């Protein structure tokens, strides 16, 4: 089973791929440079599936990927949560006292903000957590550390000088699994959609009421600028149930009169 993810070998996206497809006899995670590359590889059929992070329990949404869902007609066929156990990684000759700057993905730097501010190091954002380890190893930077997973440290034969450095030990990232086809109902599902409410009083309330009146639980709502009209927004919603269920079908049909646009991203087995 080939599945693509953003980052280098040892990235948390790779862990998400292994975790989601753990029941498969063989999993072949394929690294990509950017999130767009993940979407493109699934769109073109280069690989059947991709995993992308959509939200973190500390730092919140990965906005770039919300925007990609507007551009690509891909389906969400699954979700998986990965616990992030960030460690501080250096070259084998480097000591903790040598550290003057730290590299990592911006989300990881944000998740460790309190720890990093306490030490007053210079911070440098990189494209990936595992990638930051690869960079400081290749450049043999002796006064530099990277934030990534313990697996990344092992893969690149680097040294861990601090563990569990995230601001909150309950640090999870939710990943969505991309495909070109919908997942069948299981009886315990979740559906993700995007819509834009009509620009009139009460339209968002009325749209959400269509779910409440049918006893459909919303698990997440997020707004993002439309990027076409200033101060107008698209709403990203997750709700319990499969789009083929009668009550969900009725709700999705009913909200059309309150919206100017609606896109069903997919229904998939509920994990979170």
Report on the structure:
The protein has 272 residues and is an alpha/beta fold. The chain has nine helices and 15 strands. It has helices at 12-20, 35-43, 63-71, 106-111, 113-119, 129-138, 150-155, 203-212, 246-254; strands spanning 2-6, 28-32, 49-56, 60-61, 75-83, 87-90, 101-104, 122-125, 144-148, 159-163, 172-179, 189-197, 218-225, 233-240, 259-269. The strands form three sheets. Strands 1, 2, 3, 4, 5 and 11 form a six-stranded mixed β-sheet that branches. Strands 8-7-9-6-10 form a five-stranded mixed β-sheet. A four-stranded antiparallel β-sheet has the order 13-14-12-15, with helices on both faces. The chain is elongated and about 65 Å long.
Please bin the fraction of helical residues.
Answer: 25-40%
Radius of gyration (CA) equals: 20 Å
Order of helices and strands: EHEHEEHEEEHHEHEHEEEHEEHE
Dominant shape: elongated
Largest sheet: 6 strands, mixed
**Number of helices in the DSSP assignment:** 9
- Roughly what is the average pLDDT, rounded to an integer? 95
Q: Bin the strand percentage.
A: 25-35%
Cα distance spanning the termini = 24 Å
Number of strands: 15
Structural class: alpha/beta
Low-confidence parts, pLDDT < 50 over ≥5 residues?
A: none
Please specify the SSE layout and strand pairing:
Elements: E1 2-6, H1 12-20, E2 28-32, H2 35-43, E3 49-56, E4 60-61, H3 63-71, E5 75-83, E6 87-90, E7 101-104, H4 106-111, H5 113-119, E8 122-125, H6 129-138, E9 144-148, H7 150-155, E10 159-163, E11 172-179, E12 189-197, H8 203-212, E13 218-225, E14 233-240, H9 246-254, E15 259-269
Parallel strand pairs: 1-2, 1-3, 7-8, 7-9
Antiparallel strand pairs: 3-4, 3-11, 5-11, 6-9, 6-10, 12-14, 12-15, 13-14
